[in-house]
Amino acid sequence: MRKLKLYFDTSAIGVLDEQTSPAEMGDMQALWKRIKQGEFDVVLSRVTLDEIYAIGNEDKLNTLINYLAEITYETIEIDSEVERIAALVKTNQLLISDKHQGDRLHIGCAIVSNSDILVSYNFRHLANVRTIKGVRGITNLAGYKYIEIMPAAMLIADMPEEG
């Protein structure tokens, strides 16, 4: 069986060390454990990595860098095809503000890298019904396979509870 390819936006990586959201942090850490066991392939983008390195809290930055060192991942750079998909997101009336350029690039990177799922905790801009439906239309328009957008909780739902 083919492994699912997961693209992580910055919010998903950040939740690995989000003490104020213990349920989400626990879900993401459970998914991380499965990644370390080789159950999934992982893609990060230059956008994700740049945003992580821009975190102002040095302790959190070091913690996230240590998490990233635990896994193997593919890095996708921003190229003209990623930018084309990001532009389609905007022209299709999704994430139209200039401040959402990073979110549009996350979508473009996830699609162009042929990921199956974009893992996100950005419910306001990415992991919501409007964006999910819009991205479905964009993948059809651009000739790419559909990509799911969801938080880690949906990926670990089939895991037996530890106890």
Structure in words:
It contains eight helices and five strands; from the N terminus they run βααβααβααβαβα. By secondary structure, it is of the alpha/beta class. The protein has a single domain, classed as Rossmann fold. It has a five-stranded parallel sheet, with helices on both faces. α7 (129-142) links the parallel β4 and β5.
Topology:
Elements: E1 4-8, H1 10-15, H2 22-36, E2 40-45, H3 46-53, H4 58-69, E3 74-76, H5 80-91, H6 101-112, E4 117-119, H7 129-142, E5 148-150, H8 152-155
Question: What is the tally of beta strands?
Answer: 5
Would you identify the CATH H-level superfamily? Answer: 5'-nuclease
- Rg (CA only): 15 Å
* Elements, N to C (H/E): EHHEHHEHHEHEH
N- and C-termini, Cα separation: 28 Å
The CATH architecture can be named as 3-Layer(aba) Sandwich
Largest sheet: 5 strands, parallel
> Any idea how many domains?
1
* Proportion of strand residues: 5-15%
Shape: globular
Spans of at least 5 consecutive residues with low confidence: none
Q: How helical, in percent, are the residues?
A: 40-55%
At the third CATH level, what is the topology name? Rossmann fold
The average pLDDT score comes to 90
- Neighbour order of strands in the largest sheet: 3-2-1-4-5
Tell me the name of the CATH class: Alpha Beta
Q: Total number of helical segments?
A: 8
Category from helices, strands and their pairing: alpha/beta
